[in-house]
Write the structure tokens for this entry.
Amino acid sequence: MAQADLDQQRGLVDELLGRGIAGSIAAFASWNTTANTLGTAIPEAIAVAAGMRMGSYDPRAHAQFMLDRYADDYAFHDFTRPALNAWLSDQGVSDHTYLLPEVAEQTNWRNRADLWPRSLALLAQIYPQYADGGLTITLPWDRTFETNSTSA
């Protein structure tokens, strides 16, 4: 994602957070490409609308999904990933698309250490009615392109 796109995406999330409405929208995604973003946000919005219409909407499940999106698409890509890549570069690792196992393990640990408090802060700000029930943060592959955060 280009820096201008990251700046625009960060501005959108900052605005949603600032207005206190980040937890009241039906869907959010902002990952990598327009197709990935729309391919995530549209089905989520449809699922929310269908659940509400059919009386099966689960606000907790929706909050879990949305927190994952804010943590992955916003906090990781705007803050944690640049810090990880800078740290790797400082360590002499210039290729962040494949990390050797020992480096991947250290990077995964640093990812969790940085993203965990950011995710908890987002949870408290967006969904104060919920508590951390077991947030898991990992790098799913040996690279820094994406993270995986799931909540129980």
In short: The helical segments are 3-19, 34-54, 59-90, 101-126. The longest strand covers residues 136-138. The longest helix spans residues 59-90.
